[in-house]
Design brief:
The structure is a single chain. The protein has eleven helices and 14 strands. By secondary structure, the protein is an alpha/beta fold. Strands 5-6-7-8-9-10-11-12 form an eight-stranded parallel β-sheet. The chain has a three-stranded antiparallel β-sheet with strand order 1-2-3. It is globular.
């Protein structure tokens, strides 16, 4: 087995702003596995929120080189690395390699239905209400918009601007841990009147006990508070939905298992992503087939994408060609 690890830098279309940071480019780490003529690839997006960088993820992947080159499978890989971006890249590469070697698509190997087109959110970064109004007008034909909150006094004005400009779109707001329980209590009933379907991670992870038993008029979704199946028990009574990301869960294997476990607990599903190319979005699409909300616009937000990438058409993403992944 030939095991290759590389870091790639991809430009963002414009500026991507959330409550914690701004970005004009993003680093991804790609794992490539070669076994004879078959090549499997996986991509991850290191996230500084979890103490990750391209360098730290590469070091994690290098530490398991001997095991990978000896030909380990997906199950063994789960024990080699903790949940997080490094395991995601390796896990997805192993899925892709098996599909390329056997000629059997990943959805069949995973005992899932063939993935179909999905409506995905298109993310509007933090900006002034005036700029958001113009941005929303430009994408008003897209069926699902996601607006980042800053946790400041302009958040409600931001949402009102988007709601007015894109009157047929469903809305998601993402606070990225920027709110307090008092701010949420003020915003939630007003957001409900503005067609907001979902509020992502209003309070900081680990400091969200105030949400237990909280009767929000808009469903609350755990993002930073969820990693893998081990996080689910603590979310009961706080959230009505969970945002599963392969980079948090540590790959498609754990993402599928987390989705099944979340549904068994009565939680609705959202499947999201970090910034990344279509190589990262393709496996996430398989996990997203039964989700109520999909936020897989990571490649759509880039200035350019990989060859044979996913096609995005007015908010609908088409399944990736198998030459790319799966």
């Amino acid at each position: 087995m030939i095991y290759l690890i590389r870091t790639e830098r991809w430009p963002v279309a414009g500026v991507f702003r959330i409550a914690r940071r701004s970005a004009t480019e993003t680093d991804v780490v790609v794992v490539e596995l070669r076994d004879g003529d078959a090549v499997g690839r996986g991509e991850c997006g290191p996230n500084m929120r979890y103490g990750e960088s391209a360098e730290s993820v590469t070091a994690q992947l290098e530490a398991v080189r001997d095991a990978v080159e000896s030909g380990i499978g997906r199950e063994a890989a789960q024990a080699l690395l903790p949940h997080g971006a490094a395991r995601n890249a390796l896990d997805c590469a192993l899925w892709d390699l098996e599909a390329k070697k056997t000629g059997i698509p990943v959805w069949t190997l995973a005992n899932r239905n063939r993935p179909g087109p999905l409506v995905t959110a298109f993310t509007l970064s933090i900006d002034t209400p005036e700029n958001l109004l113009a941005a929303a007008e430009a994408v008003a034909d897209r069926p699902l918009l996601k607006i980042k909150l800053a946790g400041d006094e302009h958040d409600l004005t931001r949402i009102r601007a988007v709601s007015a400009a894109a009157q047929r779109a469903r809305l998601i707001v993402d606070a990225n841990e920027a709110l307090t329980i008092e701010t949420l209590d003020y915003l939630a009933p007003r957001l409900a009147l503005l067609r907001v379907d979902l509020i992502e991670q209003p309070l900081p992870a680990g400091k969200d006990e105030d949400l237990r038993g909280y009767a929000s008029p808009v469903p609350l979704c755990a993002d930073e508070s969820l990693h893998d199946r081990g996080s689910l028990d603590d979310l009961a009574g706080k959230y009505q939905a969970v945002n599963i990301k392969l980079d948090k869960a540590g790959g498609l294997t754990e993402a599928l298992a987390t989705a099944d476990a979340a549904r068994a607990r009565g939680l609705k599903l959202m499947v999201g992503c970090m910034l990344g190319t279509s190589l990262a979005m393709a496996p996430a699409m398989l996990a997203a087939q039964e989700a109520s909300w999909i936020d897989l616009d990571g490649a759509w937000l880039l200035a350019r994408d990989r060859e044979n990438g996913i096609r995005y058409e007015r908010g609908v993403m088409q399944p990736a060609p198998r030459v790319l992944w799966g």
